[in-house]
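Intended use. Records like the one below are meant for learning the mapping from a protein sequence to its folded structure. Do not use them to infer anything beyond what is encoded.
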Amino acid sequence: MLVYLKAFIALFVVMDPIGNIPMFLTVTRSLEGPQRRRAFSVSVFVAFIILVAFAFLGRFILDELFQINIADVRIAGGILLVIISVQHILKSDKSIAAGDKERQSPEEIGCVPLACPL
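Structure written out for the chain above:
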């Protein structure tokens, strides 16, 4: 029983459902109810597939296929966060407003920012 509890807590922390609620509401604010539910369903399905794939094949993909270790992933993640932060700081109000006019499908919203964030 303790093993299952530890696994549940680890998955809960990794998936961060409470922390993803504000992002979901922000990203889907322009969608209607059925489209919002579709984006949610797609994000849950894609996140599950990614989680299962990396649970079974993650070590093989990173070590054998790409020959990178966890330190490389941490460095690349830090560089990505710095680049994204600088872009958000330098982005003007006009470019933010122009970006809101783009319509994305529920499938696109469900896959990229929700199921597979950076």
